[in-house]
Amino acid sequence: MSFVEAPFKISIPDSDLDLLQQKLSLATFPDELENSEWRYGVPLADMKRLVTRWREGYDWRAEEAKLNEELPQFTRDIEVSGGHGRINIHYVHKRSEVENAIPLLFVHGWPGSFIEVRKILPLLVQASSDGKFPSFHVVAFSLPGYGFSEAPTKPGFTIERYAEIGNKLMLALGYNEYVTQGGDWGAIITRKIAQIYGGKSSKAWHTNVALAEPPTLTSQPLLYLRQLFRPYTAADTAAL
Question: Which terms under GO biological process does the entry name (predicted)?
Fold first, then answer.
């Protein structure tokens, strides 16, 4: 079940920005081993440069305004099964000018955010004058506990629950059939969407992360036994 959509604008309180400035001004830096470079963590010079940038050179209000201008944002309560109740979900929803464009659910990774969709969004929604590439209605939601989405309050929030929210959000927006894209944590979630809702609602899955493990006697006994008697070829090894 889903509930009423509400427009959303990013508006970080001044008190939070003031607190960040206080923390930056109170930063203390450790000593550093000579010529250690990146072997023991972030070099001291780089850390000082980043702190200075955030303290003196980064205009959050200007960036906030750009995000609000570029990304049409909304929130909506989604009813989540497993006793988790309603969770308020933040998302970007940009429709293509092509009416029959393909609905696309974009799922960000960790420790990322919905902003990952920012640079590709204009390219995905634009129309192709010669019909050589498809256009998309794009939905990019903030995972629960990330960005501006409410976090779960109970344990047991499994990968199936993230997939459930993505599917219910697309259905609530009127997209009964859609495709997905995800990388990193988003790859795992969109894979689960394909497993649970594939064939009915989720029609295709694109990912830039391929996860696989060698077969074991317990996970894939037939494949495991086969590779014992027929070792990998040079082509197999190259592919791996």
Answer: epoxide metabolic process
